[in-house]
Specification:
- The complex is a heterodimer of chains A (83) and B (131).
- Chain A has 83 residues and is α+β, with helices and mostly antiparallel strands.
- Chain A has a single domain, classed as Roll (Ubiquitin-like (UB roll)), CATH 3.10.20.30.
- Helix content of chain A is 22%, strand content 27%.
- Chain A contains 2 helices and 5 strands, in the order E-H-E-H-E-E-E.
- In chain A, a hairpin with a 2-residue loop joins strand 3 and strand 4.
- Chain B is of the alpha+beta class and 131 residues long.
- Chain B has a single domain, classed as Molybdopterin biosynthesis MoaE subunit (Aldehyde Oxidoreductase, domain 3, Alpha-Beta Complex), CATH 3.90.1170.
- Helices cover 33% and strands 36% of the residues of chain B.
- In chain B, strand 7 and strand 8 form a beta hairpin.
- In chain B, helix 2 runs antiparallel to helix 3.
- Classes of the chains: A alpha+beta (83), B alpha+beta (131).
- Chains A and B meet through helix 1 of A and helix 2, helix 3 and strand 7 of B.
């Protein structure tokens, strides 16, 4: 199945692209997708602990199973800022 | 009104979007780009569909949590020069206390969960601004 992977800010700069089209086996979970991305782009290693994952614009857990056409976003921590 | 836009924010239009005859208070917050050393502008990168969705949900939660009447949030994308408005929040309520509380809470949530990242742009640098 075809999955769109979106990368932002630091992750986009590390990978060099903000959007990737990847093919995965049916039944692949978000966690398995992250593992595949980290294996292909090892410079992302270490970022996974603070990474937020979203599928079709909604934050999800790693055990969510992907479906054909899903858009998975790897989101670095947002800007924050002092109050 | 929930919007992400590249052009300048019309603050008066944002305020007008929350006006109601049953409101006794409108609180407006402007987030502006501060002139830190070597900073001439901030570049905002936005995951737009998710940001719009998250901002819309924040508006709904603020209505339930504080009993406010109307809430608008407009955020810039792209480059905003020092002194420019990067975000405008307007909140209307029957009384000022809930309008102040809701506006403050919404801004904290925007910083915490909305997928918007900023990078400092200066004379010769580009780096993520520290929290």
């Amino acid at each position: 199945m075809q999955i769109q992977v979106r990368l932002f800010a630091t992750y986009r700069e590390i990978v060099g692209e903000g959007q990737l089209a990847w093919t995965f086996r049916d039944g692949t979970t978000v966690g398995q997708l992250v593992e595949a991305v980290l294996a292909k782009y090892p410079r992302l290693l270490g970022h996974e602990k603070s990474m937020v994952l979203a599928v079709n614009h909604e934050v999800v857990r790693l055990d969510v199973v992907l479906r054909e056409g899903d858009e998975v976003a790897l989101l670095p921590p947002v800007s924050g800022g002092r109050r | 009104m929930i919007e992400i836009q590249r052009n300048r924010i019309d603050v008066e239009a944002v305020v007008d979007s929350v006006r109601r005859n049953d409101a006794g208070a409108i609180v407006v917050f402007l987030g502006t780009v501060r002139a830190d050393p070597d900073v001439r502008a901030l570049d905002y990168e936005v995951y737009k569909p998710m940001a719009v969705r998250t901002l819309t949900e924040l508006g709904e939660r603020a209505r339930e949590k504080f009993g406010i009447l109307e809430l608008s949030i407009v955020h810039r994308a792209g480059r905003v020069p020092v002194g420019g408005d990067s975000v405008v929040i307007a909140c209307a309520a029957a009384h000022r206390s809930e309008a102040f509380a809701a506006c403050s809470w919404v801004m904290d949530e925007v910083k915490r969960i909305v997928p918007i990242w900023k990078t400092e742009a200066g004379p010769a640098k580009r780096r993520a601004r520290r929290p």
